[in-house]
Amino acid sequence: MADQITKRSENYSQWYNDLIVKADLAEQSAVRGCMVIKPYGYAIWEKMQRILDDMFKASGHQNAYFPLFIPKSFFSREAEHVAGFAKECAVVTHHRLMNDPDGKGVVVDPSAKLEEELIVRPTSETIIWNTYKNWIKSWRDLPILCNQWANVVRWEMRTRLFLRTAEFLWQEGHTAHATAQEAQEETERMVNIYADFARNFLAIPVIVGHKSPNERFAGALDTMTIEAMMQDGKALQAGTSHFLGQNFAKSFDVQFTNREGKQEYVWATSWGVSTRLMGALVMAHGDDNGLVLPPALAPIQVVMVPIYKTAEEHEAILDKMYSLKKELEAKGHSVKIDDRDTLRPGFKFAEWELKGVPVRLAMGPRDLAGGTVEVHRRDTMEKVTMAIDSLVDSIGKLLDDIQKTIYQKAFDFRAANVEKCDDWEEFKAKIGTGKFLLCHWDGTAETEQKIKDETKATIRCIPVDSFVCEEEGRDIYSGKPSRCRVVFAIAY
Amino acid sequence: MADQITKRSENYSQWYNDLIVKADLAEQSAVRGCMVIKPYGYAIWEKMQRILDDMFKASGHQNAYFPLFIPKSFFSREAEHVAGFAKECAVVTHHRLMNDPDGKGVVVDPSAKLEEELIVRPTSETIIWNTYKNWIKSWRDLPILCNQWANVVRWEMRTRLFLRTAEFLWQEGHTAHATAQEAQEETERMVNIYADFARNFLAIPVIVGHKSPNERFAGALDTMTIEAMMQDGKALQAGTSHFLGQNFAKSFDVQFTNREGKQEYVWATSWGVSTRLMGALVMAHGDDNGLVLPPALAPIQVVMVPIYKTAEEHEAILDKMYSLKKELEAKGHSVKIDDRDTLRPGFKFAEWELKGVPVRLAMGPRDLAGGTVEVHRRDTMEKVTMAIDSLVDSIGKLLDDIQKTIYQKAFDFRAANVEKCDDWEEFKAKIGTGKFLLCHWDGTAETEQKIKDETKATIRCIPVDSFVCEEEGRDIYSGKPSRCRVVFAIAY
Fold first, then answer.
1. In angstroms, what CA-CA distances link B179 with B60, B133, B258?
2. Which of A143, A268, A466, B249 could cross-link with A244 by S-S, CB 3.0 to 4.6 Å?
3. What's the pLDDT tens digit per position in B91-139?
4. Do residue A136 and residue A269 come from a single domain?
């Protein structure tokens, strides 16, 4: 099983692809750049969705649904947005097929050309702000706190499963506010919800910060981000939250009467995370045996494998397993009994390791007689023996411990690979070796671009929490004065 | 509030549109035929999704996700399917926009023409069976029981909110089986799940049956359906389940090694319900005051409106309301306190009636002093006084009663409007007056078509449960012999 997967040390990128496919998470489809998300992968995504959706609702947001298609002209309204999003995209030009006059299948009916082309949404600011125009008249209509779960399409030239696909699934929040301050608070609130989700559910430590102007969302005044370190030391942008100012309100003429009775443009935010999080999950925790899933997101938290020779043994062990399963499920754990009779236990062990199931129980006749069970934890690959009598409590604690241990491992890995750096030669030597470098930056787009051109490294963020470092210094490249360090890394 | 809505008796169709828009369920978007589903409407759809999804999972199905786009050539593979689905559809022909050389926004880049056009999925049998080809080798890989929640696009010429839109949301199940019998059982299982959902959650009685060959899904050997009667006596097809035989397996060459070691084509089903159910909900239960929501699907089950003059009264009443809210929520009921201070109680009453909230509580100082509360039920518009002490129990029972009463009302309405009919002149006189007519049919497509041409009536189904009527008789139109009655109606 695991021998079908390339080792991380051999080829990290190939390991990633092998793992996605062999663990049944996703696969390429017949359509260029579009993936099929398989049931096991989709079950993980559903858990992510449910948790995030609950967090959004607890913070006052509601779901809605806006059209898949956006009239081409909408993109031209916001000057920066058009440059960022109306380039590589799927363009619908016709609305009918007809039988090929030559009898070879179907062809596009030339008489069914649309008057205005439609773009399959790459992001929905334009269509949503065109809608909000009708929803907002007065300050009493604000705030509007909408989210949508949807598919979006960006015609990427080079695609990778989950990380960069032409079609992907995501949520996009779009809020409208009466004041700049409220919108900025919302921007921060949502990036912090993403950070909370990453740390407590994905078990991935993230750095929260602002993007440099170069790396902002097209049309935003400020973009906040959560940045995660993968096991190859590269950075993955895992979620972003944008303060859009009044840009979209102005482009779509969305004004409201404020408390003073004056007309004013509405303030906006947008924020999103996508199926890219699946890629983050795989790359942050997986090992050469396969996936390692944090219990909080594992579709199966505990798998049980019976070990027996006789039919009598089989029945006795299964009886016990079903009663344990019931008890564990009553405590909210998801449990699977793998009773396939055509496969050896060793094969099953390897398969569930590949799929990252956090805990495996194996039980044979001697275990049953002795009132014990062999428990294997996926994260450390350690085996311990547990008493059946107290198993339900023990498993609950073990799952908690696994969740924490996975996070701590990722945290320690990152801690070992973040360094301050004040020397340009050292920067060049280290940046390609899987490090996040905390460096002074002079704040100019010019310097940022030069560093990127020479090293491929980008400013991942100007940190606001754990890595914030406000101190006087000099830009690592230009030597000009700087007041704080920023995070440089090579990114996915 | 309600005076903004056309009365049903005046113009049922206008009433429907008014209601959808005024109750904040949905609205037209800037894109022809595509709707915006507003937060209140989407909250109802989310409840439907959650309940159906739980039912699908309880019957062994898993969710997955397949691409939005389908290569044009895929549609030509299944001969009937192409005729049914590859006509009015959204066709993607290009993958890039560029700045207009004349400086007027953006235009399609002619150099970015796709080699093969992509169709935005109108339904996913083709792309899914092309995928299943790689998943299925042996009988051990079967059954595959997948469902997906997705958006689909059919370029309808005449659209109506929820009932017929260019883009709509739905779920589509696609299953693969080793035998015809298993696939047929699955087809029946799913139509029965839909019927169960319609009756117990939508509170809509439905007739379960088979479609006549004319009305089958393009590519199916059998289509089962649930048919509901709206308040104008027209039929609404609310869900379908298809036995696809080996048609798609043959078109996409999906074979498996059966238990005897022989190669065989796989057997298939597909089944779906869509946001059309929202239209059914509105049309089945709404009245001239607005929506009437069954408690099982109401995003807000109980709304509380405080009635007060002084700040002291206000505070005391709100205190009581928050404690009641907490108790009701602990019992699983969703509760909203409408404490907007800029609106009169009468205005609030009308608004929540319009939005179909099943139960409204109004509490004033005298109620509080007397330990009572005024309770209004939306379905019958009756008011009763309840004791605050036992309110939580009383509300639970009331919600159950409302759910049953709404169903019974729809059931009685249908019972009053279904008739046996054996005379063609009578048929012509009655079919346009809002009746379902149970008639003998000779089983030929020819007769069915002639009846449709003369009266617009179609065979909604050949019933299998409540309305099954196997008896000798003569076709209502042709006079030829028949062995059972079928359901004729004018349909949405």
1. 18, 17, 9
2. A268
3. 999 999 998 888 778 899 999 999 999 999 999 999 999 999 999 999 9
4. yes
**Mutate: best of B69, B102, B157, B170, partner A, most A CBs <10 A:** B69
The stretch A73-90 carries a mean pLDDT of 82
Q: Which residues in chain A are closer than 8 Å to B150, comparing Cβ atoms?
A: 151
Tokens matching residue B265: 């084509």
Contact B326, B318 (CB under 8 A): no
According to DSSP, the residues that pair with A88 across neighbouring strands are B96
Q: In the predicted model, is pLDDT for residue B385 greater than 90?
A: yes
Task: State pLDDT tens for residues A215-259.
Answer: 999 899 999 999 999 999 999 999 999 999 999 999 999 999 999
Same domain for B401 and B317? yes
Work out the minimum CA distance from B369 to partner chain A, whole angstroms. 33
Q: Which of A227, A257, A285 is the last residue of a domain?
A: A285
Which B residues, 87 through 126, put their C-beta within 8 Å of a C-beta on chain A? 87-98, 105-106, 108, 117-120
- The reply to whether A88 and A6 lie within a common domain is yes
Q: What 8-state DSSP symbol labels residue B343?
A: S
CB contact at 8 A, A115 and A133: no
Q: What is the pTM of this model?
A: 0.97
In a domain, B411, yes or no: no
Task: Tell me whether B36 touches chain A (CB under 8 Å).
Answer: yes
The model's confidence at residue B1, banded by pLDDT at 50, 70 and 90, is low
| A272 and A314 part of one domain | no
Number of domains composing chain B:
3
Q: What is the CATH number of the domain that holds A28?
A: 3.30.930.10
Of A68, A74, A86, the CB nearest to B151: A68
- The contacts of residue A204 (CB under 8 Å, 6+ apart) are A198, A228, A238, A280, A281, A284, A285, A407, A410
Contact residues, B window 151-190, toward A, CB-based 8 Å cutoff: 151, 153, 155, 167, 169
* pLDDT at residue B236 greater than cutoff 80: yes
Inter-chain CB proximity B97 and A120 less than 8 Å: no
Q: Please compute the mean of the pLDDT values over residues B29-35 and round it to a whole number.
A: 95
Mean pLDDT of A459-472: 91
Residue range(s) defining the domain that contains residue A377: 300-404
> What percent of chain A lies above the pLDDT cut of 70?
99
pLDDT of A3 strictly over 80: no
Query: Is the minimum CB–CB distance between A395 and chain B shorter than 8 Å?
Result: no
Res A146 pLDDT > 80 = yes
Closest-approach residue (CA) in chain B for A98: B87
For residue A342, the chain B residue with the least C-alpha distance is B140
CB atoms within 10 A of CB B276: 22
Task: State the average pLDDT over residues A310-321.
Answer: 96
Indicate whether B388 and B424 sit together in one domain: no
CATH number of the domain bearing residue A431: 3.30.110.30
Inter-chain touch B89–A96, beta carbons under 8 Å = yes
Give yes or no for B82 touching A (CB within 8 A).
Answer: yes
Q: Identify which of B27, B53, B490, B23 has the alpha carbon closest to the alpha carbon of residue B285.
A: B23
Rounded CA-CA distance B363/B361 in Å is: 7
- Residues A215 and A363 both lie in one domain: no
Q: Give me B475's structure tokens.
A: 């076709």
Of B405, B435, B461, which residue sits at a domain end? B405
Interchain CB contact of A69 with B (< 8 Å) = yes
Q: How many CB pairs under 8 A join A and B?
A: 188
The interface predicted TM-score (ipTM) is 0.96
Closest-CA residue of A relative to B168 is A67
pLDDT at B105: 83
